[in-house]
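Need the bound structure for zinc ion, inputs here:
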Amino acid sequence: MLAIYRKYRPTTFDDVLGQDLVVKTLKEAARRDRLAHAYLLSGPRGTGKTTTARLIAKIANCETREKDAAFRAKGEPCNVCNACKDINSGRAIDVVEIDAASNRGIDDIRNLKEIVATAPGFFKQKIFIIDEAHMLTKEAFNALLKTLEEPPPYVILILATTEAEKIPATISSRTQQFYFKRVSVDKIIGKLKDIAGTEKIRISAEALELIAASAEGSFRDAESLLDQLHSFGSEEIKLEDVEITLGKVGFDKLSQIAGFLLENNLDRSLETLSDIEDHGFNLAQFTKDLIQYLRRTAVLKYNPEMNEAFKGELMNEHLEKLVAHARIFKDGHVNLIKTLINAYSQMRYSEFPIIPLEVALVESLKNTNKH
Ligand SMILES: Nc1ncnc2c1ncn2[C@@H]1O[C@H](COP(=O)(O)OP(=O)(O)O)[C@@H](O)[C@H]1O
Ligand SMILES: [Mg+2]
Ligand SMILES: [Zn+2]
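Answer from helper R.:
Posting the output first, comments after.
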């Protein structure tokens, strides 16, 4: 069975979510039939770089676009002609995808030169997609530079990378560059909902939210996790299933213990902590999430305008919870964050990771209570 993230790879620009500027610019180029010879697509994983590279490949070779000017004006590939279908299924010989992370040897550079030097076999344009391009060797970049200086008319070179700053300027300056953004939690939830609907996957709202929030802006991570959870075959995916799979507690539990801490309620804090340990959650992960929660609370207390910046990372009702906690956050709580950071570095080497964490809570809550 096709993995969800493959099955739901956008086949049109309109389906590429959260990358408005990239989409707008490329659609316009497609309408006017003015693609560049080389592109550099950069940004976090799972945000649409490979997807966009394939869309460019289709725009360059779509037979319907070639024949039908009215259709061309849409700025989209048709997805029904042979070229589009071949590219969608990954069978197109003239679309060469190389993963630079696993092909770093001298043979590959020779290969690369050969591929660029030979005209396309079937298509109008030969598309050369180099993934993780920052991993290329110096020799490979030099070979590429030659191509970029005198690109054969039939070649479109697309570099994709998560680390644009590692691409030599001699290369990047000869490409058209697009920056892909981390995607907002809301957009991820929206797409997951659509997928769940089509696949008839039953999943609770809280479970969806945790999947989306833990994906850190990556559609692929979210879709893969949904896939994994679905393959367990339970009737309905519940929050607990996601929590167990991730070894990570959901927002509500996190918010609950943060509340106890901010109210200096040591009893309930320790109780909740022990509860979390009993359920087998990864305590280091939990501590990291708790630190992140409190850090956001602190930031909101001292700079309420950061609200805007957090909107992409959090759902609205979660953000409201944080804002409420920011109101009871006191200067002394900064120390709590510090102590937790300390505990975090200790617990990774401790045989009983809960102990540094408990000590941290006792220490900092006792102190805060005094002031
Ligand atoms: N902008 C996006 N809009 C909708 N789905 C996306 C987007 N970006 C990624 N995806 C989903 O994630 C999968 C992987 O995306 P991909 O383009 O390969 O990411 P990467 O940026 O790592 O190359 C796609 O098949 C698709 O299901
Ligand atoms: Mg990719
Ligand atoms: Zn087509």
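Comments: The longest strand covers residues 155-161. The chain has a mean pLDDT of 92.
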